[in-house]
Design a protein that fits this description.
Length: about 240
C-alpha cells in the first residue's frame, strides 16, 4: 500500500481521531470528578466510548500513573494518585474503515511537583520544535536528533539498559511513525531512519521523557504532511483544568 494518503483516507483517519479525542476527554473528566480513580476504570471508559463510536482498540491503550508511566507501553493498573504523572495514550481503529488514529496526553491530578512541571514543559517544547520541522523532504532522523539535542541541553540525559527499548531512562523511543490501516507504519521517525517525509504521509510526533523516580511524560499529535509543511489532525488543546499539567 502506498504511504501517500488520499483525501478519502485522511478523512477516515480524522473520523477515528475524533473518537480518540472524545475518549481522551472522557478519561480526563473521570479523573477530575472521581476521588479514587483507577487505571482499570479509565480503560473501561475508553472501551465504552470506542464501542459507542464504532471503534475498537486491538493494540490496547495506556492509562498509566506514577512509576508505571516510566515504561512507554505500560497499560497501567491500580489507583491513579495525586501529584503524579498520568500518561494517556489512545490508538483506536474504526470497525468500518479499518483506519487507526493515535494520540497521547499527560495529566496530573492536583498541583504537579516543580520537577514534573519542568519535564512537561520540556516535552511540550520538544513537540513544538519537532512539529515545526515537518515538511516534505525532511530527513526523519533530523527531527529525532533535534529533539535529542534539546533534551540534553535542558539536562535530560538518556541512559541505562531498557526492557522494551534500548535505553531505560530519558528519551527512549522514536519521535514518531506513520499511521494508516496499521498503527505503526512507514515512515519511521527515529535515530537510525534515513528516509524522508513525503507529501501525503500521516505521522505522529510524540516526544517523551521517562525517569524511574518521577514517571513519564508523553505528548502526541497526528499530522498530515502537506505540500508546504503540515496540517495538525489533532484537535485537542488544554487539559480542561488548572489543576492538571
Amino acid at each position: 500500500m502506498s504511504r501517500k494518503k488520499t483525501l478519502k483516507q485522511v478523512a477516515f483517519i480524522l473520523e477515528t481521531q475524533r473518537t480518540a479525542e472524545v475518549a481522551m476527554q472522557a478519561v480526563i473528566d473521570y479523573l477530575q470528578l472521581t476521588t479514587t480513580p483507577t487505571s482499570e476504570e479509565a480503560h473501561a471508559i475508553i472501551d465504552r466510548v470506542l464501542t459507542e463510536h464504532g471503534c475498537e482498540s486491538p493494540e490496547g491503550y495506556v492509562v498509566a500513573g506514577g512509576k508505571d508511566s516510566c515504561e512507554p507501553h505500560e497499560m497501567g493498573s491500580g489507583v491513579l494518585k495525586d501529584h503524579e504523572p498520568i500518561v494517556i495514550d489512545i490508538f483506536p481503529r474504526s470497525k468500518f474503515t479499518g483506519y487507526f488514529a493515535d494520540m497521547s496526553r499527560t495529566v496530573c491530578i492536583g498541583t504537579p511537583p516543580a520537577r514534573l512541571k519542568k519535564m512537561y514543559n520540556t516535552v511540550r517544547d520538544a513537540q513544538e520544535l519537532a512539529i515545526a520541522m515537518v515538511a516534505p523532504g525532511v530527513v526523519c532522523s533530523d527531527i529525532q536528533n533535534a529533539v535529542e539535542k534539546l533534551f540534553i541541553k535542558r539536562g535530560y540525559e538518556t541512559s541505562g539498559k531498557g526492557k522494551e527499548f534500548a535505553f531505560a531512562e530519558g528519551f527512549v523511543h522514536g519521535i514518531g511513525h506513520g499511521v494508516g490501516t496499521t498503527i505503526h507504519e512507514e515512515p519511521r521517525i527515529g535515530t537510525d531512519t534515513m528516509g524522508v517525509l513525503e507529501e501525503g504521509d500521516v505521522i505522529t510526533i510524540e516526544p517523551g521523557l521517562y525517569y524511574k523516580d518521577i514517571g513519564g511524560v508523553r505528548l502526541e499529535d497526528m499530522l498530515l504532511v502537506t505540500s508546504d509543511g503540515y496540517k495538525n489532525l489533532t484537535n485537542f488543546g488544554g487539559m480542561g483544568s488548572d489543576t492538571f499539567v
